[in-house]
Amino acid sequence: MHLPVAPVRGAVPPVFKLKPLAPIALAAALALWALPGQAGISTTGSTASNPPGALLGPGDTVAPAATVIIGSGGVGSLQVDGGSFLQLANLSFGNGGTGNGSGLLTGAGSRVELVGNGTGSQAQRLWVGNWGTGVLTVAAGATLDTSTQYSACLIQFHYCDSFVGSAAGDNATLNVTGAGSQVRIGSQLFVGHPGLGIQNLVGYTYGTPGATVTANVNVLAGGELKTDRAQIGTRQWDTSSTGYERSVSNVLISGAGSRWVSVGGETWNSVTGAIFNPGSGISTALDRYAVANIDIRDGGQMRIDGVEGIFSYLNLTTGGGRTDMSLRGAGSSLLFTGDAGVLQVGRTLGSASLEIREGATASGMFYLSVGRDASFGQLLVDGGGSEVSINGTASAAANGTAATGSMDIGRGGGTGVVTVSSGGKILLQTAVARPSGTVLNIGRDASSSGTLNISGAGSTVMISAASVLPGGGVGEALNPQMRVGREGSGQLNVLAGGKLLLDGQAVSTPAASRSTSLLIGGVSESANGGKGIALVSGAGSEIRLSGSDRYIGVGHGPQSNGQLTVQDHGEVSSTSITIGRTGGVGVLKLDAGVLTLTGQQTGSNQAGANLSIGNGGGVGVAMIGNGSSVTISNMGSSGASLNLGGTSNFPLGDGSLTLSGASAIHVIAAPGMATMNLGRDGTAFARVRGASSIDLGDGSLYIGRLSGSDGTLIVSENSTVNAGWVGVGRNKTAGGSVDGGTGTFVLNNSVLNAPTVIIGTNGFLGGNGTINGTVTNYGIFSPGNSPGTMAINGAFSAAAGSRLILEVESDGAGGFNTDQVVFGEGSLLDLSALKVEFRFLGATDPNAFQSSGGFDVDKFFRSRGAGGDSDLAHDLFATASFTAQADQYTISSFTFSADGGAVFSAVPVPEPGTWALMLGGLLLTASVARRRR
């Protein structure tokens, strides 16, 4: 999208010599002005005209070729009142370096027309301040019009513009006040131009080198200023400029009915001379030494009326200067009408600020940027009723493609900061179908940065799309998208009850998907993304996605980096969230936060509610603590899932999860449809601690699900995991289960509630917790935690090839600690293929353990019922096999039986020093042997 920078142009100020008005005419004018109640046209003081001797008044005056100066080197004034009509080629107030001219146009029906042909002495139509001091007031229903008889102005190098302050050193003011009062400016209005001409450079003297032009435009009490286009704080286009001339331009629009309206109009191309309409618009601070201030208050309005097929614009700072604009009070407004309205706060270089306060509004634009093209922009929307509504559209003729509303905070190397506070609102809305939907980008391009702050109860940023095609389809509208750190750097802060809402009501179908999406770090699956950080903090603070196919991606796409923090009872809701996808890196932090994922997508993906951490080759890290709550719920056909290390649609990845501080994850789905994948086909690590819980209902927990995957789950500190089926290195099938990847499950001082637990060939289950369910072991079961006790309240089956590791460790006081498996009373046990490995840790002496009577099967296996512990029947071990190993002993000839205990030989492993001596002896022996030969 190429957005407009308004063209600028100027003409050499007139250097012809103006002669004073005829003394008789001047005297008559003075006499008439002095008569009380006398209506007409009158002048006083220093005035001049070309051709000389032009008469002004006392009645209607029509002199379409005349140029008149009021305040030509001295003090002069002009008054037009009582319904009088004055027509001139052009009119100037305050000339010659010392001129001070003022004008008053007053009264209903009083009218001044400026109709110069734009060349020679008729170049330009109005100067208020033309190297001097100028004041022009249009009041009480009077009209000033420079837009008539315009055909001659459409010839190349015919200049028909108007100026308020046209020379360095000027002090100029234009006042439009009172209901019915109007100033109509054709072509361009230039406010605050630091013009300069140095005799030996350009052949004339004009302006004061190094001086500042001060220009004021006041639209008050129901008055109207209407322009084709305008510049406030122009660029310096004079070749004589010293580089130190400055401009300060002030605009005040105050009072109900007071308005400045830009309407567009034809002009000529400065290169080809072709006639065209560049649209309507106002640009400010077009030079690095330009300062522009715009104040709209008490019901005043600035309105940009768009021309069909052309951009219309308000560009705040276009060229390196500084702009401060404020709208204050109910009824005060900035309004775009028609096609392709564009508001840019910081357009090119420099800086700009726009404040919308106390119930003021800005609306009708289709595009808003804050901080573009190496500029710095700030937007504040503060207070109840204060609102920015990006609800316009752009035609294909204007924009290249038809488009709905969009907003960029930081674009093209710029920096943007937007704050919505104390009940203010920003709304991006569409109810039409266009090739592009509503989009908000923070840090759009690689070298740009942006920040969006939403703070305080009632403060809202809402991006929405309505459905335009019942049932969806190709002609349906597109749902909203938001990118925080699209390709640059983006920061989103939702604080103290603020809300970010994305509402996509366009219907999504498999053939025509319509995603409602928020990416925090990233732009797409294929393009390199940026860095995005989002914070949701405080009760009532919320990011909420509603409507169709809701998705949040944190670190989404190649080289993307994203972080989402939800704390202090802040809330985030969507259908799915991915942390680290397709080469991106994502981080999720919940600290007393709430995450709610519900529903099922209806587009091409059809995914159920899910939290996915590290998929599609991405890296994801999630830290959920301090009483945080995660709910993943979908009663539809696709179920609900928590995934680390790959999903079916986006395989591979590296995911990490820490759940702590009595935090909880609930996965809710139709019977058997809740799933947790820890390493589906990638790599995953999860830690559940501090009385936290994961509840899958009757769903399935996979740890290392598919071949090649690697998953680890450590549950500790009185935490709980609930599931219907658990596979550790094992995958569930329609007919049972098959081996998967590498799975590790450590359960310490915690509880696993699962009717079925299966340890795959490459699976490991250990710890000193409690399992309420049936355990089938094809891999490694290692009760205890160097050492400790594992309780199983359910059946246990040791499949062929499986191993059970029992550890023994000296307690340092002559006794020993051993691993122990405690089975619930009445549990069905199949130990026929059991393979037990005794492991002596550290310096533990197997011989001492044997002497203590420790090698007793009843010390390692127990049954526990209401009456306490009891021994297992020894015939359960009749076909079991036993081996032993030690860290610092070599054990040989080991045998063990449940009834007879252990028989073996164990000798200490030589210390490193002993090995060195033995090696030295071997080397010496070899040397002697060589010598003997």
UniProtKB/TrEMBL annotation:
Keywords: Signal
Signal peptide: 1-39
Transmembrane segments annotated in the record for this chain: none
InterPro entries: Ice-binding_C, T5SS_PEPC_rpt
Name listed for the protein in its UniProt record: Putative secreted protein with PEP-CTERM sorting signal
Source species: Roseateles toxinivorans
Lineage, opening ranks: Bacteria, Pseudomonadati, Pseudomonadota, Betaproteobacteria, Burkholderiales
